[in-house]
Amino acid sequence: MNQDSQITALQQELATLKRQVTALEDINAIRHLQYAYGYYIDKCLYDEAVDLFADECETYFLNGIYKGKEGVRRLYCTWFREHFTEGYNGPIDGFLLDHLIMQDIIHIDEDGTTARIRARCFMQGGVHRSAPRKVPNFPEQNLEGGIYENIFVKEDGIWKIKVLNYNMLWQADMPEGWAHTEAHLMPLTRTFPEDPRGPDALLDHAPETWPRTRVVPFHYAHPVTGKMWQPVPREKV
Amino acid sequence: MNQDSQITALQQELATLKRQVTALEDINAIRHLQYAYGYYIDKCLYDEAVDLFADECETYFLNGIYKGKEGVRRLYCTWFREHFTEGYNGPIDGFLLDHLIMQDIIHIDEDGTTARIRARCFMQGGVHRSAPRKVPNFPEQNLEGGIYENIFVKEDGIWKIKVLNYNMLWQADMPEGWAHTEAHLMPLTRTFPEDPRGPDALLDHAPETWPRTRVVPFHYAHPVTGKMWQPVPREKV
Amino acid sequence: MNQDSQITALQQELATLKRQVTALEDINAIRHLQYAYGYYIDKCLYDEAVDLFADECETYFLNGIYKGKEGVRRLYCTWFREHFTEGYNGPIDGFLLDHLIMQDIIHIDEDGTTARIRARCFMQGGVHRSAPRKVPNFPEQNLEGGIYENIFVKEDGIWKIKVLNYNMLWQADMPEGWAHTEAHLMPLTRTFPEDPRGPDALLDHAPETWPRTRVVPFHYAHPVTGKMWQPVPREKV
Which among B6, B145, B178 has CB closest to C128? Predict the structure, then answer.
């Protein structure tokens, strides 16, 4: 091979390697973004959470869809913040809402501008007996388990949340536990503006929660067989 | 340095870098594989879990060794699936078995075809009071902590589980808690085919479980001293 | 572009890519180091934990600062080890102290020799009813949540812990739970050598713990806005 061909080959290999390295950096950036979200939610830093979203965005919460920055802000900064901290953007004494995030599986699309994550959330929430103010309709103390299947978008080199799709699967009051309690968060019934904290739209069917169970569809194919997961009807067993 | 030497140097550096990038991609792929396993086990997707294994594989569970695809399938698709979901490959209502996986430490062998992981599992399991069917010998609700030390193999470019070595360390009924309960999973006593759900072989000694404690040996040397961990006999203290 | 320019361009791009790949490897190494720490603490392997530190190091624990290898050793190998395992370097029966680490956000400084991590710790601790020896002043069983903001240093190619800054945020006896208990670990009042297990210095103000709440400052800017987090005084609400 002559020098010109060798240089061309090197340039091509380097370009391939660059794309691979960018993808690896992107995976780390997306993991950090998802984890940063968890740390903000922990401490009722709702402005910071909303700032993680792209302008074109959606949040799925229970059976509600909050659309665009305005809808997402309504969920976090109106509903959650007014409900949990009476409007203060930060933690208040006696209120716990730890939002542990783990087990992230991230894939980046070929063009490098869209990414998907599956991640797990395990929460501890509650209000201390000493707290002067009780959060209405909030359990004294509970655990929650859920699955994220989120979509991220890269805009001007910065990854942002495009779709936050949180699937609350179970809640359990403590110490009674999951054998003795049902999820207390109920499906939403009204949209905005009828409900000033409501979503922009409702799903046709409210996702089932504990003691019902369901599989949150995987954004990725099976790592070995390459097949996408298909539900098996229970009556077929 | 002349152009030929410069090109040769570039080719060598690029080859080194390629191996490093492949190793980084492999670490992500192995993490995803281990995490995917957790999501399948969560939801009783036992066919999908078994499909993650290489043909030559083993699963260590309690004091049993399940050998080859057939043995591994016997564990997941006969024992677990018949026991937990009466043979349905998916979640049933009122049955919780969340399988949180985290804290993974992954190392890839020099040849790039074998890898080892240490990871932690934290489980929440139980059966809701409303469930029409109680799982036999399964606690109403419990927590479990364990350590994986698994081995992966790359076959035709795809990482698969070669050895799944799960070390259940403690189980605790809730709300009694770990101070007041012992691990309820007992060592196995019979092998297949005498026990149609049994392992292919038994370990000489059943690994100890709570309230006994033990260190699951680390596949890696100490990150700073480079020494492999050696147990210190307790009588030596 | 002539061959010389092409070769120069390739050399420069390769050098950039090398730095990126080194940073990616460093992030993995730091994650492993932090996770390895968790596995050692789990099992009372205090010598191994101390060996993860650089010679110039500090540990922040409660309101105490333990300085240098000697101070750090006093914390782990004098206080913890004598208190928890009567001096044995390893797990004893009936004593649980699982130290789950997750949700790590890692950044490496430009020069590649200093790194910072934010990570979360979720602990399960306790002493089994069958244990012949009760650990003094240690709860029968409890949960703990905390945040690490640690600093690492690379010395001779090996990452080590330079500053371990653990922020215990809440503790909850089980089954009473976080609504009904306060953190039981109290601020330290005396330094070494007056207290033979004491820290080298005390913080001016003891960090608040449950049912008080606080934000552990983030080492990183907001991933999208690029702003560093600033606390909002609660009276300003």
Answer: B178
